[in-house]
Specification:
- This protein is mainly beta and 418 residues long.
- It has 5 domains: 36 residues; 102 residues, RNA Polymerase Alpha Subunit, Chain A, domain 2 (Beta Complex); 96 residues, YbbR-like domain (RNA Polymerase Alpha Subunit, Chain A, domain 2, Beta Complex); 87 residues, YbbR-like domain (RNA Polymerase Alpha Subunit, Chain A, domain 2, Beta Complex); 90 residues, RNA Polymerase Alpha Subunit, Chain A, domain 2 (Beta Complex).
- It has 6 helices and 31 strands.
- Strands 2, 4, 5, 7, 9, 10, 11, 12, 13, 14 and 15 form an 11-stranded mixed β-sheet that branches.
- Strand 12 and strand 13 form a beta hairpin.
- The mean pLDDT is 88.
């Protein structure tokens, strides 16, 4: 058997080339695996997080003033395994200022520090650029603001009406730097309701802070006791409500149907629930006292609606006027004065023999005879002690249902023991 001669094999030119190539490949692999597997990378656009609560400056009663700028960003440079750092993004870090130097109101240049979002990842944070951030701090003040509802996209079904939207709560407490609070001109709860409504509904409005020019002020500058406001959007059915008046001190047998009068307005537009509108009846706005009526009188009554009804027309009063073309008046003397309901054991006498200047109003009053009018004293309502008293009388006109007595009249009675 022929023995292998190593010296000849190593001195062979082809063999030397093969060995050299293998050694070069091994050296290249070592370099790649030991050196080029690590690298450095810079991730831009990392948001600088400024806490809205819980920071050390909050405990001092301070707040940041940033002139409306609410987003600061930084670049973070890292090193490590290329496969690891290649997968990093803006959310892989938390960049925050260091607030330990903030002790009172003023402007501070604060160091920025970056930490890993996932502490288990194997890479090194090398630097943050910019390395510092200038912030101004001021004392915190708190004010209450009324909330104005602003709802868009509403349409209302035919026969229904939209009433003013209300907020719950109607006020909001806002805390922030005094100069920032002073910028707030209006607080609006904004909601979109893109549908046709035929009943009341609710929505939730986001808080918008506006300055005098109507520009939006970033809410992140402030602490508020609510971020959303409940909005009640009242939608009611409409209907026409007839109005009427009533009468008091009507003589027995008197027929009010011949009294011609008009109401202005005779109806008003109201809104309520569908059930209420579908069962609308007449609304009595007030009562006219015939005993005090005089020809030419007009009356005004306030329109007061029951709870749950809305006066859509916003008409607050109704005027009542009489057509007096079929009415006239005259004065008579009434001599028929009678006592009613005299208590037992009491003697009562009418000292007045006639009541002069009694005004009667009605149709064809010229044909009314004084003897057809009776004055009555209700003795049950008078003082039963002995003595003379002036007491009011009421009137009855038994033969006529279209005439009445207007005015207040008194007679003198004498009370004695029976």
């Amino acid at each position: 058997m022929q023995k292998f001669q190593s010296s000849k094999w190593l001195t062979s030119k082809p063999h030397v080339m093969v060995v050299s190539f293998l050694l070069a490949f091994v050296l290249w692999a070592v370099v790649v695996l030991s050196v080029n597997s690590t690298g450095t990378r810079t991730i831009d656009g990392v948001v600088v997080r400024i806490p809205s609560t819980g920071a050390s400056f909050h405990a001092l009663g301070l707040e940041i003033i940033d002139d409306g700028q609410t987003t600061y960003t930084a670049s973070v440079t890292v090193s490590g395994d290329r496969a690891v750092i290649g997968a990093l993004n803006e959310d892989s870090f938390t960049v925050t200022p260091v607030f330990t130097s903030v002790t009172q109101p003023g402007t501070y240049t604060l160091q920025l520090q970056a930490t890993k979002t996932n502490q288990m990842q194997n890479f090194t944070i090398r630097s943050v650029n910019p390395a510092e951030l200038s912030l101004t701090f001021a004392e915190v003040v708190t004010e209450n603001f009324n909330v104005i509802p602003e709802v868009t996209g509403i349409s209302v079904a035919e026969g229904y009406v939209l009433q003013p939207v209300t907020c719950t709560p109607g006020t909001i407490q806002i805390s922030g730097a005094e100069s920032s609070i002073e910028r707030i001109s209006k607080v609006v709860a904004v909601a979109a309701v893109d549908k046709e409504l035929s009943e009341s509904t609710t929505a939730y409005g986001n808080i918008h802070l506006l300055d005098e020019a109507g520009n939006l002020i970033p809410a992140s500058n402030f602490r508020m006791d609510a971020s959303q406001i409940e909005l009640l959007i009242p939608v009611y059915k409409e209907g026409d409500l007839p109005l009427e008046v009533g009468f008091i001190n009507i003589p027995e047998g008197f027929d009010t149907s011949f009294l011609n009068y008009s109401l202005s307005p005779a109806t008003i537009r109201v809104a309520s629930t569908e059930e209420n509108i579908d069962s609308l009846g007449k609304r009595t706005v007030g009562y006219i006292d015939l005993a005090n009526y005089q020809l030419g009188d007009t009356y005004q009554f306030d329109i007061v609606l029951s709870t749950g009804y809305i006066n859509v027309d916003s008409i607050e009063t109704v005027t009542v006027a009489f057509d007096e073309s079929n009415l006239s008046s005259k004065k008579i003397t009434v001599e028929d004065i009678r006592l009613n309901n005299v208590p037992e054991g009491v003697e009562v006498n009418v000292a007045t023999t006639a009541i002069n200047g009694v005004t009667v109003i009605g149709r064809d009053v010229e044909s009314l005879l004084p003897s057809g009018v009776v004055a009555e004293v209700d003795a049950s309502t008078i003082n039963i002690k002995q003595g003379s008293y002036s007491v009011p009388v009421s009137f009855q006109i038994p033969s006529r249902g279209d005439v009445w007595v207007a005015g207040t009249y008194m007679v003198t009675i004498e009370v004695g023991q029976g």
